[in-house]
Specification:
The complex is a heterodimer of chains A (234) and B (140). With 234 residues, chain A is mainly beta. Chain A is built from one helix and 18 strands. In chain B, strand 1 and strand 2 form a beta hairpin.
Amino acid sequence: MAITASLSLISGANDLVSDALALVTDASLSKAGTTTALANTTGLARKTTTTTDQYTLLYADEFTADKAHKVYIKNTSTVAAEFFTIHIDDEKLGLMYAGDWCLLPWAATDGVKAAFTVTFAATWATADTAVFDGVTIALGATETTAAMAILVAAAKYPNFTATVGGSVVTFTAKDSNDLSLIEEGAASDDYVITTNGNGTGTVARTVTPSASANDIKITPAQTANTIEFMAFYE
Amino acid sequence: MATTTAAVTLSSDLLSGSLSVTGSSTFMKAGTTADGLNQMRMGRNEIPTGTSFDLLDATASGVDKANKVYIANLSTDNTYYVIVIIDAKVIGRLYGGDWMFLPWNMDDVTHDLEITAYTGTNTIEWVKFHENETLLTQGD
């Protein structure tokens, strides 16, 4: 497999400078430090904005950090005054006017995803509940703490993944930009437990999150702006 | 009007169908259709490892303009790379043989375009297309 990026920068004689400028180059987009082609692409995507808010095109969390990723972005507008600003996190890179395109290397530096544990103890009885991230676990029968942990970890949470080890469930945020801190202890307002007997679930934060500092974002100067973009990555 | 065009083709057999994406733009001054970018600087540098260098200095007159920058890493060793940085924010790694083309609005005078080489001395080539630059007076 091969990915080729071909560029030509052209200006005629007595135009920008007195001699003609013709800078033509090809690059084979390869994995970091190798001659092996990058093996993945997001495919070409197209997005039309509807506000002048900031939009995230690519989340660094979803890519391996510090590789030879490349990102192509194009402003498809044909109205000369229309532009958007490209940012990496909060850093402005430049202005993309109608028809402009760019090809960037991208470090995709990850953030740190929040994680916490819930340790289940004592007896979990019929109708006991554990509620988190919009998901309710309600027991139909008395369960051991290990069985309770398995039930909790087996559920699908919108914003977290869950793994089980004995009577402990470890939750990890799917997005490092989720900086909310889960309240710790046996009476957490974030991980809400209701028991009829003596069952407990004690929350402990294990990883403090830090936001990704490398997401690729755009801010349109006008509400409607159509952008095409694509990443090649490893 | 100074007319400079930049054209790109991205082609690959990575997918089951052929991939061929093309883009072409004429460098215009910010927000205009009749006035092309009329200034240019270009250079070639050998970048030793271990130090972050200012490749291009941001200037007040260049802020929020439609400047464009091309950088190629001419190193023939694929393990050599440079990290491209704007105002301490890492953009990405440009390995031997890679090139990049980006808009650069400078944002403010601290937003220099910086470069750091790794593995060995990297040779890079660069071109900046811009407007509105005035030369520094002697002694500045």
